[in-house]
Amino acid sequence: MSGKVRVSILGATGSVGASTLDIVSRSTPGAPDFQVVALTANTNVDALAKAAIATRAELAVIADETLYTKLTQLLAGSGVEAGAGYNALIEAAQRPADRVVAAIVGIAGLPATLAAVRQGTAVALANKESLVCAGALLKEEAKKSGARLLPIDSEHNAIFQVLDRPERVEKLILTASGGPFRSTPLGEMAAVTPEQAIAHPNWEMGAKISVDCATMMNKGLELIEAAYLFGIPERRIEVLVHPQSIIHSLVAYDDGSVLAQLGMPDMRTPISYALSWPNRMPLPGLERLDLAKIGRLDFLPPDPQRFPALDIARAAVSAGGGAPIVLNGANEVAVAAFLQRRIGFLTIAQVAGEVLDEFLSARSVADAPASFEEVYEIDRLARERTFEKLRLAA
Ligand code: NDP
């Protein structure tokens, strides 16, 4: 890429969005000269307008249509165009850009991610739920349009950085910190609060992914994401608990070599790689890895009793078809209910597993979805069933 690098950020007000804004707002010698095209948010209209004005974005879109007037007022005189609602979000994703950062959380991010992929844009993908629910379909669309999927998730970004000979890969090893409850006595896990679950020991992230890390459903979703992204079957993807989050993942080759990517746990590194690929860009001021200071790196296998979500996700990916969509939908509903203090922590994985089992027994999702409409329908049914089981109103 030469000249200005045009970047749009879908989900600009979130945690990945903030890290991306930090990168594109710097002016560092040797780094690309970024031009912000579109920024989007769901309801956080103040932060959206502030970021759009600060970065001189062309367009700012708020998904919640009721906030359109407020957005136009906040942007008055700034020269930033305002948009609101679903169609405007899709338009933001479709604006010509060199990179679209897909950082909306949940399956809610799929339509915009798909719109960017269909344009043939290189998509820097954080929104793992899109791949979990529609991995095969999205890859097919990317093949048709020539779009490139560049993973932002630190584990997949690590693998992407060291995966030079895919045909020689024996296995992928995804590292996991184990989250805040890695060594909490099992008897205390039922009573943990949203505040405790969100307090990740190494990474600062949005609420949903933080809870997913605490249950380790995040690693399950990442396993599915990795299977799609790298075309490696689930049985050749291992999970390794590594509490320090320094090794971001590893690739084992068939000559006995194991390649890993290391770094401090800071999302700006993988995001910058996805923005500057196939080059790298300088990120001065970020804490550098000092292994002598860290002293030791620990590794242990995941505990299936403590983290049943991982086996549930393996069951979903090995069943294939629409099973990962069911798992994701049930998990999204359960995590939201936990964050609202309507269910306990352990109920999250339990209900996701039960809903998945029901759909698998009924064989209603045995076939892979043939269209995105089918993906949304399976998601709807899985959510409906989860609400029913939790006896909650949608
Ligand atoms: P956050 O919750 O911090 O941010 C989510 C963003 O999406 C916000 O901009 C939010 O807008 C927007 N959004 C939420 N719902 C909708 C919707 N229905 N329609 C349109 N926009 C919406 O999430 P994170 O940044 O933590 O995560 C984003 C994605 O990246 C997730 O898929 C996550 O798994 C993945 N990821 C995150 C990492 C991290 O370090 N945070 C690491 C690796 C992957 P608003 O602010 O207005 O609500």
Total number of helical segments? Answer: 16
Shape category: globular
Report the structural category: alpha/beta
Helix content: 40-55%
Radius of gyration using CA atoms only:
20 Å
How far from one another are the termini? 46 Å
| Low-pLDDT residue spans | none
How many independent structural domains?
2
- CATH architectural type of the largest domain: Orthogonal Bundle
CATH class of the largest domain: Mainly Alpha
Spatially, the strands of the biggest sheet line up as 4-3-2-1-5-6-7
The overall strand count is 11
Strand content: 15-25%
Element string (H = helix, E = strand): EHEHEHEHEHEHEHEHHHEEEHHHHHH
* Ligands (ions, cofactors included): NADPH dihydro-nicotinamide-adenine-dinucleotide phosphate
Could you tell me the mean pLDDT?
A: 97
Might you state the CATH topology name of the largest domain?
Rna Polymerase Sigma Factor, Chain: A
- CATH homologous superfamily caption of the largest domain: RNA polymerase sigma factor, region 2, helix turn helix motif
Please outline the major beta sheet: 7 strands, parallel
Q: Your description of this structure?
A:
With 394 residues, the chain is of the alpha/beta class. It contains 16 helices and 11 strands. It has helices at residues 15-25, 45-55, 68-75, 86-94, 110-118, 128-145, 154-162, 194-198, 207-215, 217-230, 268-276, 291-294, 308-319, 323-339, 345-362, 372-390; strands at residues 4-10, 33-41, 59-62, 81-84, 99-102, 122-125, 149-151, 169-176, 237-241, 247-253, 258-262. Helix 1 (15-25) links the parallel strand 1 (4-10) and strand 2. The chain is globular and about 55 Å long. NADPH dihydro-nicotinamide-adenine-dinucleotide phosphate is lined by residues 11-17, 41-44, 63, 103-105, 108, 126-129, 153, 203, 205-206, 208-209, 267.
